[in-house]
Amino acid sequence: MKRFSEAKAITDYIKSIKKQNKTVGFVPTMGALHDGHLSLVENALQDCDFVVVSIFVNPTQFNNEADLKKYPKTIDADLELLRKKSVDAVFIPEYSEIYPDESSTQVRFELGNLDKVMEGKYRQGHFNGVAMVVKRLFEITLPDKAYFGQKDIQQFVVVNYLNNKYLQHLNIELVKCPILRESDGLAMSSRNRLLTKEQRKESARISKALFEAQKMYENCSIQNIENFVKNDIHENTKLQVEYFEIVNAESLQKIENNDKSQPAVACIAVIVTDSLRLIDNVLLSPINA
Ligand code: AMP
């Protein structure tokens, strides 16, 4: 496995790979890798001749300093996992490789208001930071395909918009991969490592409530589902639901009645402590987004 820290070096290398008519798959991550990340890697390895994984904790997408500070870092273990999967290259840049000067952190993207709802509403500037890093990483790694998790469904929708609006010339196909869960249903996340034993146990309530919502969607009103999910998660736990919304999986607009013709997804953010929140979602009807 080749390891790069300089943007120019990996771009040059990938250009030489592409000259050999090999396809390049790219999996962007913030490290502290788990099986969810590795499922993206496996998909990329199946589809592409050459697979690059990036590890970069992107400060511009954090709106909470404490969250950024305590974001888990397990670089040696990450490298070992990627080596075992036979990933071809890993890109671990310094901040200055992604943001070479002050102006590169000031770019503002128009993201079709997809960045204003749910996560965007509660994490000001988050998606602009995501857009900055994804654009830069795409320009550096020049992939044919890039792999993202449905775990961050809003991120996928925003990146898809970014890709269509700003990055057409790169001709990158986005691939969305299903959510991997722990045995009790909790969506895998790097932040799960930060949970205490009690918080970890309580957090299983999140996906349980979402799966119940999935069943209820057939016959119940959106209001009833919302009430159920919030009450169920709050009952006997210290968890706080920040938002629970049933939205169109492509436009992210709220679905007000059970309009079954729309591809629907139930999205949730739960505050565990001041600087620790978990997100999850379930599809309520099939989508091909
Ligand atoms: P992160 O390191 O949290 O930025 O995540 C990197 C990529 O892994 C993103 O595309 C995430 O959506 C994806 N991902 C994170 N958790 C999971 C999961 N439990 N299942 C599948 N993909 C995931």
How many extended strands?
Answer: 9
- Read across the widest sheet, the strand sequence of neighbours is 1-4-3-2-5-6
* Portion in helices: 25-40%
Separation of termini? 33 Å
Largest sheet: 6 strands, parallel
Strand content: 15-25%
The residue ranges in which pLDDT falls below 50 over 5 or more consecutive positions are none
Instruction: Give me the number of helical elements.
Output: 10
Mean pLDDT: 96
Secondary-structure element series: EHEHEHHEHHHEHEHHEEE
From the helix content, strand content and strand pairing, which structural class follows? alpha/beta
Question: Which ligands, by name, code or SMILES, are bound?
Answer: adenosine monophosphate
Notes on the protein architecture:
By secondary structure, the protein is α/β, with parallel strands linked by helices. 39% of the residues lie in helices and 19% in strands. The strands form 2 sheets. The protein has a 6-stranded parallel beta sheet with strand order 1-4-3-2-5-6, sandwiched between helices. It is globular. It starts with a strand and ends in a 6-residue tail after the last strand. The model has no long low-confidence stretch (mean pLDDT 96).
